[in-house]
Design brief:
alpha+beta; three-stranded antiparallel sheet; 32% helix
């Protein structure tokens, strides 16, 4: 529903005070109602509250009805007390699965999925139980991520790097950061709103942010893209993270993509189509300055990170982002493409057939990783 408000009286009062009127926008997003999201926060039982065929692994990462999720075994057996006491510091706890990995495939073949619970909680703590003196004991414990999942996703270069980096990725794994990395595949982030929310901003934040955007010509101070045509995708960032500190030196005008990539912004959800729109505008304004993979990571959707790190390791030519194809008069944006080879990688798989009809070879991120040799041959 669109509401139209007449601000003529307000503008007149501002002019009478000798001040300049500043254009501003108030962006409100209605979060999609997802009936499974609330249930997943506390955990549900596989085979009872949700069925195996409802869990989708097309993206590599696990999901159900557009909601990112994890699988884990709550029964910690005789290791319960050690898991509860030492949590992340012990290897004895059952691992948490975030992707369709070799372990889950084995469980699927053996029909052992009945042991799993499904959850989307992101604080790293999971409801667990065990038995002591024939009595069931229930606790919450920190559990570690499955290494096979990190491998199949090549998360942060896990499978394409040496032992030292593997250990660092595993030891420093954070569920919130992980969910944010692959957020483009999903309708929202677990445990948070599906849009950038006001939080504890002051009452006059709309006017403050509008002024900052105006002073910087509705452009991102980091990548330089001008979003005059799509101002809702231009945010104002607090450098020190304190939303009440609105000194000019603490505020930066950033596009939504640059904003979500700032430190401590794991819960800032940006829709996949909005990232594509920003990259399309960047491309049209010649804002890409990509000479190597480090440059590419600055602009590419974070859901592509594992694939791009694999490409970097194998010295594959750098792909292009911001490319759009005209398909039957409709522009279709590609997440990353190698135009000379007519190869594209798409996050939104609903567009695959349309792009393939134009003579392109199309991969999902997951298929490009699983069948990397085939992908590599197509690109080269």
């Amino acid at each position: 529903m669109k509401l139209t408000v007449n601000f003529d009286a307000l503008h007149f009062a501002v002019e009478q005070m000798g001040a300049a009127n500043v254009d501003f926008e108030i962006d409100l997003f209605v979060k999609d109602i997802n009936p499974i999201a609330a249930m997943l926060e506390s955990g549900i039982e596989l085979g009872k509250d949700i069925q195996l065929d409802e869990i989708n692994s097309d993206f590599g990462v696990l999901s159900a009805k557009g909601q990112q999720l994890m699988l884990y075994i709550p029964d910690q057996g005789s290791s319960l007390y050690e898991v509860v006491q030492y949590g992340w510091g012990t290897e004895k706890g059952k691992k948490v699965h975030v992707a369709e990995c070799a372990t889950l495939e084995s469980m699927r073949n053996e029909g052992r999925f009945v042991r799993y619970d499904v959850i989307s909680r992101t604080d790293g703590k999971f409801p667990v139980f065990g038995y002591h003196s024939s009595a069931e004991q229930n606790y919450e414990a920190e559990l570690r991520v499955c290494k096979n999942c990190l491998k199949v996703l090549n998360y942060k270069g896990y499978s394409s790097s040496g032992w030292s980096n593997k250990k660092q990725v595993f030891d420093n794994f954070n569920f919130k950061t992980f969910f944010e990395t692959y957020s483009s595949h999903f309708n929202s982030l677990p445990g948070g709103d599906s849009s950038y929310t006001s939080g504890s901003y002051p009452d006059n934040w709309a006017a403050i942010s509008a002024q900052v955007k105006h002073e910087h010509n509705n452009s991102c101070q980091q990548c330089g893209v001008n979003l005059e045509s799509l101002r809702r995708l231009l945010h104002v960032h607090h450098i020190n993270g304190i939303k009440t500190d609105n000194r000019p030196e603490n505020l930066r005008s950033l596009c939504a993509d640059c904003h979500k990539k700032q430190p401590r912004h794991e819960q800032l959800y940006v829709k996949h189509q909005d990232i594509l729109a920003i990259n399309s505008i960047r491309q049209s304004q010649s804002k890409f300055n990509v000479h190597n993979y480090d440059d590419l990571f600055k602009y590419a959707d974070t859901a592509l990170e594992g694939l791009l790190k694999r490409c970097e390791q194998n010295r594959i030519a750098i792909g292009e982002i911001g490319i759009s194809l005209s398909c039957n008069g409709v522009a279709v944006s590609l997440d990353i493409a190698w135009p000379r080879a007519k190869v594209a990688v798409l996050i939104d798989i609903s567009k695959m057939d349309t792009v393939q009809e134009q003579g392109w070879t199309v991969f999902t991120v997951n298929r490009a990783l699983v069948f990397f040799n085939k992908f590599q041959q197509a690109v080269r």
